[in-house]
Write a structure and sequence with these properties.
Blueprint (H helix, E strand, L loop, with lengths): L4 E6 L2 E5 L2 H14 L8 E2 L30 E3 L1 H23 L4 E7 L3 H17 L2 E7 L5 H13 L5 E4 L9 H7 L11 H8 L10 H12 L8 E5 L6 H10 L3 E5 L6 H5 L4 E4 L17 E4 L3 E4 L7 E4 L4 H5 L4 E2 L7 H19 L4
Parallel strand pairs: 3-4, 4-14, 5-6, 5-7, 8-9, 8-10, 10-11, 11-14
Antiparallel strand pairs: 1-2, 2-12, 12-13
Bound molecules: NADP nicotinamide-adenine-dinucleotide phosphate (NAP).
NADP nicotinamide-adenine-dinucleotide phosphate binds next to helix 11.
Length: 364
């Protein structure tokens, strides 16, 4: 029997984590449906305001004798910023096409029939179309041989109309993921997962050709909202190769002082409480409670966790790794789930593809 985990966030919201077996489908379905809870004020990116990290969360309106006013974090609007970035990319793609007749191209290889993977690939294709990037898709059956995937990667590596190659993960268990990802040429590794790109990210004085899209999106949100990183204490919760670890490396490159919290960390709340900036990438619904957060901290919540919700017509909703209702009362700014980091990931993939095409054709 699949176990169900209670994940209570606040006294008013008791959510229940869905069993792992149902999560993938739930993410796909709920993504189409839900809008974020917008209990806090939405915050304009840098063009309209600048936020001092560590500042007390702004309150509004002025307190009266009879009404208790709670501090409320500003919402970092990833959906809005991602749209801005897509518009910028679209303009650059047109400029490049007009100037040198080149259109950036992204190839996506999907193996197997996972519904969530098929949805992600479809979304990437749509996103490419929306900014004028060409997309090429290969869909191989679940029982394909590793050699079949390698053959397509090799073809795309040699194809000058393809500037980015993405292998949709996870691959079927009989395939060697590492060997397949390593086969993508460094110059087209728009996911940024190639060990040489990660290695360069980790080394001072070296520049990766590409940075993984989700952590890059987290940092881009901080930049676009004018949130200072240099000299700040940052805690990254999670150390996966695709999110937590590169997010920590990126923050370090920006001169933050980093701690990484993982499943074996003792007293995680004490470490998190020291942070001016928190990036949570765990995959545990509402794990970070209000009491873990230093007043005025900035929170980037990467987690996407479907939890039961009897009020939703589908029976579930998406929540992050941070208890949003509680965090809103302590933090100075926070990304919602959904509508925070999620839309930034695809925007960064498009950005990496454009960068790759510009680099290949020496187009400034
Ligand atoms: P992952 O590979 O499962 O890694 C999870 C990390 O969290 C691991 O490093 C793990 O520690 C750590 N962890 C697990 N339980 C913990 C606990 N109780 N306390 C402290 N650390 C704990 O997950 P991922 O791929 O990085 O994804 C993380 C979350 O981000 C998921 O919800 C995923 O859906 C979401 N995500 C969102 C996007 C987006 O575009 N918004 C993109 C990718 C992922 P160990 O290393 O010790 O096991």
């Amino acid at each position: 029997m699949t176990s169900m985990v209670f994940s209570e966030c606040s006294t008013s919201t008791a959510s229940r984590l869905l069993p792992r077996s149902l999560r993938k489908d739930a993410v796909v379905l709920v993504r189409r449906l839900s809008l974020p809870r917008r209990s806090c004020a939405w915050m304009a990116p840098l063009s309209r305001r600048t936020l001092a990290v560590g500042a007390a969360a702004p309150t509004s309106p002025p307190p009266s004798a009879s009404v208790a006013i709670e501090a409320c974090a500003k919402v970092i609007d990833g959906k809005y910023v991602a749209k801005q970035i897509r518009d910028e990319i679209s303009a650059e793609v047109s400029r490049m096409k007009e100037a040198i007749g080149v259109v950036p191209g992204l190839a996506v290889i999907l193996v197997g029939d996972r519904k969530d993977s098929a949805t992600y690939v479809r979304n990437k294709k749509k996103a490419c179309e929306s900014v004028g990037i060409n997309s090429f898709e290969v869909h191989l059956p679940e029982d394909s041989e590793e050699e079949d995937v390698l053959k397509f990667i090799s073809g795309f590596n040699d194809d000058p109309s393809v500037h980015g190659i993405l292998v949709q993960l996870p691959l079927p268990s009989h395939m060697n993921e590492q060997g397949i990802l390593n086969a993508v040429t460094l110059e087209k590794d728009v996911d940024g997962f190639h060990p040489l790109n990660i290695g360069r990210l980790a080394m001072r004085g070296r520049e990766p050709l590409f940075v993984p899209c989700t952590p890059k999106g987290c940092i881009e949100l901080l930049h676009r909202y004018g949130i200072g990183i240099k000299g700040k204490r940052a805690v990254v919760i999670g150390r996966s190769n695709i999110v937590g670890m590169p997010a920590a490396l990126l923050l370090q490159r920006e001169d933050a002082t980093i701690s990484i919290v993982h499943s074996r960390t003792q007293n995680p709340e004490e470490i998190v409480r020291e942070a001016d900036i928190i990036i949570a990438a765990v995959g545990q619904a509402n794990m970070v409670r209000g009491t873990w957060i230093k007043p005025g901290a900035v929170i980037i919540d990467v987690g996407i966790n479907p939890v039961e919700d009897s009020k939703s017509s589908r029976g579930y909703k998406l929540v992050g790794d941070v208890c949003y209702e509680e965090a809103c009362k302590v933090a100075s700014a926070i990304t919602p789930v959904p509508g925070g980091v999620g839309p930034m990931t695809i925007a960064m993939l498009l950005s990496n593809t454009l960068t790759s095409a510009k680099r290949a054709h020496n187009f400034q």
